[in-house]
Queue: 4 jobs
Job 1
Amino acid sequence: MTTIENKLQQIHERIAAACAQAGRASGSVQLLSVSKTFGADAVREAVLAGERSFGENYIQEGVEKIAAVRAMGLPGGEALQWHCIGPIQSNKTRLVAEHFDWAQTVDRLKIAERLSAQRPEGLAPLQVCIQLNVDGGETKAGVAPQQALELAAAIVRLPRLALRGVMSIPDDAPGFEAQREVHARAAAVFAQIRASGLPGLERFDTVSMGMTGDLEAAVAAGSTMVRVGSGIFGQRDYAPR
Ligand SMILES: *Cc1c(COP(=O)(O)O)cnc(C)c1O
């Protein structure tokens, strides 16, 4: 087995154990492999090990990697789902709309409108999560929990987007209980939107939270998608790009 294959197995075991611990069905939590800063070869190894969903933070890097992986013609490659999980500035919406399958970091209507307008007709609707700011911080990305329902109501009217859920990136909290408590706030917003009766929530099923360091707490709080990078691909090297 390659190292990436080994690490993937360990992460799947952690997810399964966390599901069992939380009394949740195994398979109720999807793994998003976060490949930012790693090359197409690392993605290839993960695809050959069976992974199909990848997350990228830096849009230009992601677009290049998507093309490089596609050119490899891997078995299963046509089923890959690429998720944008980094900040989306207005001048990058077109790249996201044209190249990614998901945009998880939508926190403003203006960005959602641009993504919808720029999503090519030949592609499936862009799958979207509302990014929440669950631990305060004026400067952090994400919409305040109290404003999430209003944003959801606007997004479901946009023709080329499919609202799939919420995502959050809380700061590190000390210990399992503190992590679980912060993640529970995102799960509560998800439940509130789902119970709202808004039209256009047919596929509203995703709570994207939990990373290498806190996936157990996120699963305990109701995560349906954990985003794991270093636990699969190793430490990242943030050399100047
Ligand atoms: C980098 C990143 C991750 C993965 O973090 P790890 O700690 O390496 O697992 C998950 N989500 C987002 C939004 C990230 O930027």
Job 2
Amino acid sequence: MENDINWSSLPFGYVKTDYNVRTYYRNGKWGSLEISSSEHVDLHIAATSLHYGQESFEGLKAFMGKDGKIRLFRWEENAKRMQNSAKGILMAEVPTDLFKEAIYKVINLNKRFVPPYGSGASLYVRPLLIGSGPQVGVKPANEYLFMVFVSPVGPYFKEGFKPVNMLLTREFDRAAPLGTGKYKVGGNYAASLTSMEKAHEGGFANVLYLDSKEKKYIDECGPANFFGIKNNTYITPKSDSILPSITNMSLITLAEELGLKTERRPVAETELESFEEVGACGTAAVISPIGKIVDETGKEYFYGNQPGKISTKLYNKLLAIQTGDEADKFGWVDFVE
Ligand SMILES: *Cc1c(COP(=O)(O)O)cnc(C)c1O
């Protein structure tokens, strides 16, 4: 069955597809994968995900290559990270082979929603792990539900690869230094909504957070990692409250490949003025180049109205590997079949 989706005008949002997959962890073990065509879940009223935030998610993209093969980028890293998130908030871990079976199956079942090569669109894959068992006291659940749905998403940059502006905030924190910032859990997102809304109201794309303890160092950049480039060096913050981005990890490798030095270390706010290029990175956009960072007092760091040369090179290179236009010499790409 074909469909009449206008791929290039798709938003980065939810589109209903044919199927999703689900499985429960009960009595200490995972069950078999169920295929569902319902967009809803039947959940216990006292499920721990609803009350105490036992929830973790992942996000990755599948691309159609020129050769007609569907490619997934570093999915094993997503599996590992979800296991780490599960450990962090005491949920049952999804084994790597079950994770793989689920994402491959849901992509294969929804093949007609994989956007064609060259459209700029891709199939977004959203694995989700939640505490589904009831508790009233604050305790981890005895039952978990792992689900994966997909949604075709449009190119992140509708008007092409252009810099965005960020609000540097001292009024809000996203995560505590020894808290859950390093896990991909919904609670971090709930904690970020007010500051993000404030940024949007001010005309900014997102928020740049400082470290919650000293308010001196750059931390997370909205739902993405931050990086800066100067003196032929790619620099990204090291912090225990940052989510380890797979895109960032890959950009570090590609930067070295391009002959740059790379550093992962604390980045003081005072260093912002010395960067030649800055950006945010994550699966959704790969790289969002940052044109300007403004703090709540109006202090401004300006980088330019056009994306920097190195950011552009890194962006094109990573995207080319993901879509299969460039050879995958790092073994990052797997074919879905
Ligand atoms: C998912 C996420 C990222 C980006 O990670 P990728 O693996 O590159 O998609 C960065 N920061 C936060 C807070 C995230 O949730």
Job 3
Amino acid sequence: MSASHFGAIKGLSKNGKFEGMMDATEIDFFPVTLTEGVLARTYDQTRIAKPSVRKGYLEKGYKSDKSKRGKDEWVEISWDEAYKLVADELKRVYKEHGASAIYGGSYGWYSVGSVNNPQALLGRMLNILGGYTTRTLTYSTHAIRAIMPYITGTDESNALQTAWPMILKHTEVVVIWGADPINTNQIAWGVPDHESYIYFRKLKEQMKKRGVKVITIDPVYNNTSKYLNAEHVFVNPTTDIPLMMAICYEMMAAGVANENFLKKYTSGAEQFKAYLKGEGEDKVVKDAAWAAKICGVNEQDIKTLAKIFGSKTTMLMGGWGPQRAHHGEQFHWMLATLAAFIGQIGTEGGGYGFGYHYSDGGCPSPAAPTGNALSANLNGSQGATTSTSAAFPGLGSMSIVPSIDGEWKNRNNIAIPVSRILDCINNPGKEVDFNCKKLTYPEIKMAYWAGGNPYHHHPDTKMMAKTFEKLETFIVQDCFWTASARMADIVLPATTEQERNDITKSHTNKFIIAMHKIAEPYAQAKNDYDIYAGILKQIGETELNAFTEGKSAEEWIRHFYDASKKKADASNIAMPSFEEFWEKGFVKFEVPQSAKEYVKMAEFRKNPIINRLGTPSGKIEIVSKKIEKAGYADCPGHPTWMEPMEWLGSDKTKKYPLNLVSPHPKYRLHSQLNNTWLRNLEEVKGREPIWIHPEDAKARELQTGDVVKIYNDRGEILGGVIVTENVKRGVVRMQEGGWWDPDKKGLCKHGNVNVLIPNEPTSSLAMGNQATALVEIKKFDGELPELQVFSQPKFSKKG
Ligand SMILES: Nc1nc2c(c(=O)[nH]1)N[C@H]1C(S)=C(S)[C@@H](COP(=O)(O)OP(=O)(O)OC[C@H]3O[C@@H](n4cnc5c(=O)[nH]c(N)nc54)[C@H](O)[C@@H]3O)O[C@H]1N2
Ligand SMILES: Nc1nc2c(c(=O)[nH]1)N[C@H]1C(S)=C(S)[C@@H](COP(=O)(O)OP(=O)(O)OC[C@H]3O[C@@H](n4cnc5c(=O)[nH]c(N)nc54)[C@H](O)[C@@H]3O)O[C@H]1N2
Ligand SMILES: [Mo]
């Protein structure tokens, strides 16, 4: 038994090699194709075999020429040499520049497993050594996580959703807005059991049986629109705000806005209604005619939506795609406001939920994951990627702050908003606005990245390469020669999750899963746990012991299981002994009836005085005084339409007329698995596919199968054309996560969409990342360049 972000699997091993796999159907209700990639990636030619150092770095150390990153040859060294090299460099940076000069916030989707969590362990090592600069928020939920605590008092991205059985029974209209749950539920942060697919299939049945209406609102006719045969509304990217405002306005005009709800459960409704009516500073009436010109949905359709929402039990399911945009904070704020106008929040089957597309959201689970709210205290808050949901009976996980005493337990690390990494490196000492506070950027000299791929995930890849030249040392710990590894100075090879024992749980807490080692480590790859231990051993026994607490990785596995069992025993929940569990491969927990009947915010609806929300008014804040007080021009005190920096209504379309969106990939987890045969399922002539509308293709004389250059002022990439009516006219779509493969002039030969996306923040509030841009496309007539990124980099002999 083993597990992954794609589901649990059963592996077949022979002579220490991973030879085959089967779906683990006892704990996966709906296995997906992506699990095939787990086997395929293991012996891919992009595996890192040995610790490697860039030649120039080996010669000159931190004084090397950083512009040679990605160009120099590599030199393989022994683990002993690597440990010493890393330990010495850490010591130097601590001594010369102090803890804040080391960036250890390394973001990314490393594998599952409670012991070998490369990021928590990196933090643990760096805290022992003196602390480090870390991060807050995530690339997934930067804007929603920053804004929603002000609006409803909760981190809505992590909140419990109204349970699916309630929706199937009560909801009349399901609106899937900026979400593609049929695609994105393939994956979970914990292990997915894919139960959500059972519910989506049932939803499809209810469409026939009960006449449930499903509406998808998206610039793309996506996997979900298709699976459910939904009524699809094509909207221009980043213009949902006018659309939602007009729906509110028209509901108000038709007398179907729920005035009682607004009065009893929200704060600031009158001020906001005045804004909608054109009585605000901008004097613009936010009616359907106004919105239609901006969002590209026709006036009558907007009025129809208002009529439907105003008369039916409506569940608004918001995804996170639209908040990865300039002013991305507005999306969920306005969607919650629209739900308040409808007035069904807290009822069976009505209201809203912002997590149905993610990690089996809405599936009843045995424990109520509490979810963490964005803490006003930067140091106290951690992104989703460093915490497992605090579920019961929760499986322990090795935390950044371990359980032993010691001064390093209480490090007061600086945390920067995760997607501001380039600004931080470029502007040391600069004071910036963030989340109604001020933050001063530290001076970063070194970055240690483990279990993430910044050269994939961050916008404006060329700017990243230029900015990272300011780092004296860049270390990457990964299993594969990713774009980030290729741009590093020191590369440390990690085992995959199938090459080590570990323990994990399903995201919905239904299972604790044993992760049996299926295969011996590839070449000289080592477990993340052992890599940090090796570095610390170089530094001192005290440091090493603080890290391991005297336990081997195997002992930690048992420790975590026993900690769960102790909690379970105390609550009379049966759990077998560790030995039985390990033998069987999993423990299953029963789902209580109450979880199947859960209705989000039902208590608040019942009594908003006693069950007040965690906002200053205790109500849903359509107007937030706190945000108003911050005085941000790009995030005022109530949901506001502000033109984004690049959109179809801007002057910039003269040069770059197409609006690019970059959603999550169907056959990858970001950049993961792009180095397997799965990429053949989608690529066009070996390039990332780009979807373009027939009219836009015709204007450029493009056909399906053509290779094109997609470009703007930030850079250029190749892509393979797919002409399709699945995108709105004026919109093009390329999925994130294609491996970056720049030629000598910087053209990405393969199709890493982030080359084209701006680094600019969403606003001063969240300082979040964007995922849209304006671009132009033209046919690529040159000879098709060969890809390099899916083979080994060039090595030279030592010395
Ligand atoms: N344009 C655009 N950009 C986006 C997005 C978008 O929608 N559009 N989405 C954003 C979002 S939501 C996210 S979450 C990010 C994702 O960005 P990342 O999480 O950085 O992307 P991954 O490709 O999952 O990178 C994970 C890396 O960890 C490595 N890894 C896996 N297992 C292990 C392990 O056990 N040990 C070690 N040491 N390494 C391991 C993998 O090989 C891989 O290189 O991308 C963001 N970027
Ligand atoms: N297969 C697969 N599943 C995944 C992942 C993966 O990489 N692969 N990644 C996982 C991760 S880390 C995360 S954070 C989640 C991400 O979950 P999401 O952020 O919800 O996923 P996206 O695909 O980025 O966007 C969802 C939808 O929003 C649409 N969209 C984009 N811009 C706009 C807009 O302006 N308005 C409207 N109305 N719609 C818009 C896109 O076309 C897409 O259909 O998915 C998770 N699931
Ligand atoms: Mo994400």
Job 4
Amino acid sequence: MNSPASLRTRSQILQQRAEGIFPGGVNSPVRAFRSVGSTPPFIESALGAYLTDADNNHFIDYFGSWGPMILGHAFPPVVEAIQRAATRSASFGASTAAEADLAERVLACYPAIEKIRFVSSGTEATMSAIRLARAATNRKLILKFDGCYHGHSDSLLVKAGSGVATLGIPGSAGVPEEIASLTLSVPFNDPEAVAAAFAAHPDSIAAIILEPVVGNAGCIPPAPGYLQMLRALTARQGALLIVDEVMTGFRVALGGALELYGLDADLVTLGKIIGGGLPVGAFGGKRRFMDLLAPLGPVYQAGTLSGNPLAMAAGIATLTYLQENAAQIYPQLEASAQAVAEGVAAEAAQAGVPLTLNRVGSMWTWFFTTGPVRNYAEASRSDTAAFARFHSAMMEQGVWLPPSQYEAMFLGAAHGKDELAATLAAAQNAFQAVVGA
Ligand SMILES: *Cc1c(COP(=O)(O)O)cnc(C)c1O
């Protein structure tokens, strides 16, 4: 079925062409495969759990477009919804019923969201939520966690996880010190560190923003009680709690991490799955904060393509299917992810490769370290060279993993027993390559 990944003539030609046109040959850095020392295949198409590259190699997909493709690629109800919407024009720049249709589906799953606004990316969602929190509190500082990624806006590119971590840089050139200094970053899962930050900056922190299950430093679950502690602390300190569910929303449960951990939030940010593969982000939360937005209030925020009809259609089709089949899909995702994540970890143990598995539902990371991994510092003890060998050996056998130790893997409803068995067989060989090198 799968031809050797060394047969990548067309991908190599396309890569050369791209390198002359795009910085690093890509339009988003982690697509470049730099940290795993190989060149990325170019994708021609995808169906269900499989990606097909430009040389007709097939790969089982464990990154799902970085999260959105929970129902699998080219899922018929999503394809049909986009096609139907396209015949009515791709964009109006005026309101449509579809925006409220998608919003009501989100609100039904997120009691914390009383009002919502759609944007076109997760980056825009978190950037706007931060602006809102600063306006609501009349404070300037933002508190985030080492290794958490909240998109690439200036304020949030401080110790920002996967993409930047993979490149070994602490923040980003081009972000002025004055702006970076308004963002505090402390270790995740460390209650004292958060308390100390509030003590050091009394009445100055506008909000805590976090990934409730960290996905962008690899998968790191919250310690028991940690999220509730943050909720109580922010309430006491007059700061907002912004829960960034761009990755976890509709992933770890229908109602995301808020449902899974019984958490409340002042503001929630969403993206990825809610767009069904099209560019959608959203931020929402308590009415008293959301009503500060223009045109009602003084906080400006806008977007030419916000609430785009094709994107809304893809989102509605995705969320409708998830809602109607939640009782079957989420247990299935849990079972599939458990089987493959633990199965591969068992192969590692068999081969004598130190590995720590962190998993929440259908997102997980195999850290190449003895562990435990409870924060970014512990994640970065991983043997990234061993990960790179594992990654290459898996790709060679038709299993596409995200090309960085500091990413979460995902699977979707299209991954069945055959895919899981093929993945375990590939992993058994890949660990031999890890040990042999
Ligand atoms: C992907 C991601 C973002 C950024 O979303 P984009 O659509 O890539 O801008 C923000 N926060 C989290 C937690 C993410 O995983």
